[in-house]
Amino acid sequence: MAVNKHKPHITVFLEDSPYREIFNGIKQVTFINENILDIKNPCGGWAKVFSNFEENLRLINQNINQHVFLIMDYDDSFERRMEQFNSLILNQPCKERVFLFGIDKSESEDLKRFFKCTDYEKIGKLLIESCQEKTYENWDNIHLQANFPEINRFKTISIYKDFFKICN
Fold this sequence. Notes:
Shape: globular
Radius of gyration: 15 Å
Number of helices: 8
Mean pLDDT: 92
């Protein structure tokens, strides 16, 4: 089912297929409002995530109901990715509605080793459940801890409550 573009929603630009699987797991959790998620096809690289975002920037700026998640591997270059991200959104009207999330130290494969789990959907469930529980324990590791500033920023906007259906 397509999202209603006239209501608050989240467009997700993914680097590659493992992130799609992670989001498939997130969507399966009962307290997530999957009806507000517009998950795009994997872009095929972190640079293409930024490129696809830039190509859609005019429309994103025009639609105050659209929020964006950019999901990528930081490849042990978190600071550089964040600098690029910040320069992309610096003077954009949508800057408070766009968020960068990813895996530091390398790539999504590292999560499988860390969680001792071969199923990305299960990893997605584990990650979102610790958000719902407000422990964030599954994020507090070398691969994901760089996301805490973005998680905290996301928690301050109104769509955060729409994303989590029952645990506001």
